[in-house]
Design brief:
about 70 residues; alpha+beta; SH3 type barrels; two-stranded antiparallel ribbon; 2 helices; 6 strands; globular
Length: about 70
């Protein structure tokens, strides 16, 4: 399942990130978003969702939410 399909408030473990863009993968890694890391969907929004990774909250768009497999 992807983050777009995830239930709000439930913690998931990232299984895979399928962006196809090395620069974007490196950016996500710097945020702590990589395989094996815990992630929680705080809220779904019209253009994407708000997620909590480690001690930070980030807004990600629908395209990226569909690329993160939990």
């Amino acid at each position: 399942m992807t983050l777009k399909e995830a239930i709000e408030g439930k913690e998931y473990i990232i299984q895979q990130i399928k962006t196809g863009d090395e620069e974007l993968n490196a950016f996500l890694f710097s945020l702590g978003c990589y395989a094996g890391e815990a992630i929680t969907v705080v809220a779904h929004r019209k253009g994407g969702c708000t997620v909590s990774i480690k001690d930070g909250r980030y807004n990600i768009d629908t395209h990226l939410a569909n690329a993160i497999v939990v």
